[in-house]
Amino acid sequence: MAVDYTVIVVYLAGMLAMGWWGMRRAKSKSEFLVAGRRLGPVMYSGTMAAIVLGGASTIGGVGLGYQYGLSGAWMVFTIGLGLLALSVFFSARIARLKVYTVSEMLDLRYGGRAGLISGVVMWAYTLMLAVTSTIAYATIFDVLFDMNRTLAIILGGSIVVAYSTLGGMWSITLTDMVQFVVKTIGVLLLLLPIAVVKAGGFSEMKAKLPTEYFDPLGIGGETIFTYVLIYTFGMLIGQDIWQRVFTARNDRTAKWGGTVAGTYCLVYALAGAVIGTAAKVMYPKLPSADTAFATIVKDELPVGVRGLVLAAALAAVMSTSSGALIACATVANNDIWSRLRGVVKRDAGDDHDEVKGNRAFILVMGIAVICTAIALNNVVEALTVAYNLLVGGLLVPILGGLLWKRGTVHGALASVVVGGLAVIGLMASYGILANEPVYYGLLLSLASYVIVSLATPATDAAVLAAWRERLAGRDAEPLSEPVPVPQ
């Protein structure tokens, strides 16, 4: 294992070094939070693919393949579909807004007053997303070092918090590019072919497994529909995803770079399902499907390759964790803390104090994420809570604002509150993993948005005119002075 350990240690040291390098570039709020809005197509597509393909997509995707066969690809496949939809239909308009958070977009569209409540919901989503990624360190470090769960979470979480705090989005962008390359080599080019060969090839896999393992819909129509509702729509509105869109150099980069990343996700989804199916042939009686990835890596891969593939798993977890962490801190600072103080800071130019403030929020949120991850055990439940809150509370007012000009701030607020509370109450009633909370919560959110919007005065014409100007890319420079929050 010495060679494997060396590969992992070098990888982790490289992540910290890039954090230090990123700190030298992040001199303004724009540089720190959105990499100066300067990423070209290659870096943009690589980092976008890295953030959406995390531990759930890698370890969880292989686990679903182990449990359901090729149809286990649907969870990650719907993530790819969501990224494609975002890139093709919405990313150019989102990039032209030149904002930092989803809540700022809602304030621009509806004329204020929607930001604080939507910010709280988005903060809860990004926090839980970061927590689920941080919990996954325990699985990987257990395979590597037979490490205690709590110590593994602290070690992995501390590295992510360190490089994210140092350099913000620049550090995260650089590390994500490395993580994208490592994942591609480790999972697609090494683990996938080795797993298929060790399982005896596709003919042997078909001979040893039931036919439903090769049914594209074997996981069930209702499950696929739920994945589409949660993950495909979740990709359209998450702060962690939008904050990457904000890093694009221009509209074309956001659209085509995101399309490449979405297509990559579809390939990654199928690869994970095939690896899991192969693991089912080799290890038919594992105690848990989620251990399939670690088992096949530990037992079947040669020295050195094993270290690289485990580094790929770490890369997957770290990319999602760091992206969720900076999104959580950005929302906490810009959408909650600033509003509670009575102002919304659209931008502070090159004010170094803004960088210090955001850096402090990343550190505080990172510590909170690590502590929460230690306290929680169930990754699936935490992830489900995150996406149910996001989709149930924010999907309708965000997409409604982009697509329906009659939507009003009162309708948006009603939609967020009713949808969010409905999802929480229904999860308590039906169970966290039930499908009904997001179904009914989304319907109630939509009904509230439409009814209240039609029953209240239309959005002021001046607000809509300013909104259209920003969407068109005109008058797109953020304000330099703090703006009072409308009461």
UniProtKB/TrEMBL annotation:
Pfam families: SSF. It is a multi-pass membrane protein. GO terms for molecular function: transmembrane transporter activity. The chain crosses the membrane at residues 6-23, 44-66, 72-95, 116-140, 152-173, 180-197, 217-238, 259-283, 303-332, 360-379, 385-404, 411-433, 439-467. Keywords: Cell membrane, Membrane, Transmembrane, Transmembrane helix, Transport. GO terms for cellular component: plasma membrane. InterPro entries: Na/Glc_symporter_sf, Na/solute_symporter, Na/solute_symporter_CS, Sodium:Solute_Symporter. It comes from the Bacteria. GO terms for biological process: carboxylic acid transport. It is found in: Membrane. Belongs to the sodium:solute symporter (SSF) (TC 2.A.21) family. PANTHER family: SODIUM-SOLUTE SYMPORTER-RELATED, SODIUM/PROLINE SYMPORTER-RELATED. This is Sodium:solute symporter.
